[in-house]
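Justification of computing resources. Each target in the renewal requires a structure prediction run like the one illustrated here; the chain below, 252 residues long, is used simply to show the kind of job we budget for.
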Amino acid sequence: MCLVFIGWRIEGCPPVRIGANREEWRTRPMTSPVCRRAGTHTGRFTGAGAGSLRCLLAGADFGPDGSFPTAGTWLGVNEAGLAVAVTNRHDGVLPSPEQTRSKGLLAVHLLACRRAEDAARLARDELDSGGFGGCNYLLADREAAVVVQAPGSEQVKVVSLEPGVHAMTNLDLDDPEDSRIGLVRSWFDPRDFPESAARICRDDRIIVDEPARGTIASSLISIGDSITFDHVYGDPRVHDYVRYRWPDEGTH
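Resulting structure tokens:
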């Protein structure tokens, strides 16, 4: 399972502060952060974005065996200040053989939007139409933050976030039964960022460390007057975060 948490419009700090760990099969191909442009759409996504926006993806995902022709992602931020993150859900209703559409590809297309509210409408429309496995999307910019929860096409729910700390894994937002969410809500201090978020992402109670599957990447995003993106390619307990800063595309 993956973990995504956010400090949303906390007094005294930038409006968006996000921490995220990705858990995945260790054999699944992945990349370090890459720059892309979102906004040139084909098929169902035609006209979904406003222009072409540069975005930084936590990694490009070309499917379980790396053979997909188009890159998806699990986390990204665009130059307009919109962050998009996706997690799977344990209670998804569509069997794997019937999951014909990519959650990661949808995440990239959502990064073509300038506002979280526009991205939420697009996400809901696409998820309503079916073909996706169970999932959650976090969509956050400087003015709004939304989670779209979708166990199935007939169970899509849009939740607007109130100011404060929120977290999601593989069921509903702020699930009170999830121990990792409880730890985040107890220990995450958005005013002490990125250190507070990094401590959580590196905590042994957060890390998944199994032989075949585990924590394979970690990211920290801050969106205010500027946008910063810190990323670990690998286990964050043994690797340092590297910083990417907009509008620069290089590493700092």
